[in-house]
């Protein structure tokens, strides 16, 4: 990962983020100064923010589908759970 080599022998997808973060860490006075670059690098590696956003979108779509289904069934019956 930090070597710069990707799985296919090319430059790794996150290598540029790593270089930016590494340069910042070598030049900064405090590590918190590089927090945004670290966050970008980790997001490139793990996609955690992307997955969280996808999950929120999926849950909202499901909520809207349930609401439309309940409305089509004739009302807001709180007795039925599914």
TrEMBL record:
Q: From start to end residue, where is composition biased (Basic and acidic residues)?
A: 73-82
Instruction: Recite the UniProt keywords alphabetically.
Output: Disulfide bond, Electron transport, Membrane, Mitochondrion, Mitochondrion inner membrane, Respiratory chain, Transport
Which Gene Ontology biological process is one annotated for this entry? mitochondrial respiratory chain complex I assembly
The membrane topology noted for this protein in its Swiss-Prot or TrEMBL record is: Peripheral membrane protein
Which top-rank group of organisms is this from? Eukaryota
Where found?
Answer: Mitochondrion inner membrane; Mitochondrion intermembrane space
GO CC, alphabetical: mitochondrial inner membrane; mitochondrial intermembrane space
- Give a single Pfam family match: Ndufs5
What the entry lists under InterPro entries is as follows: NADH_UbQ_OxRdtase_FeS-su5
Q: Residues annotated as region Disordered? A: 63-82
What intrachain disulfides are recorded? 14-44, 24-34
Family the UniProt entry places it in: Belongs to the complex I NDUFS5 subunit family.
Function, as annotated? Accessory subunit of the mitochondrial membrane respiratory chain NADH dehydrogenase (Complex I), that is believed not to be involved in catalysis. Complex I functions in the transfer of electrons from NADH to the respiratory chain. The immediate electron acceptor for the enzyme is believed to be ubiquinone.
Protein name as catalogued? NADH dehydrogenase [ubiquinone] iron-sulfur protein 5-B
């Amino acid at each position: 990962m930090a070597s710069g080599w990707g799985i296919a022998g090319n430059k790794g997808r996150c290598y540029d983020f790593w270089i930016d973060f590494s340069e910042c860490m070598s030049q900064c006075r405090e590590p918190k100064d590089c927090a945004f670059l670290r966050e970008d690098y980790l997001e490139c590696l793990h996609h955690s923010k992307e997955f969280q956003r996808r999950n929120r979108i999926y849950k909202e779509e499901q909520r809207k589908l349930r609401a439309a289904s309940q409305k089509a069934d004739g009302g807001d019956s709180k007795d039925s759970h599914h």
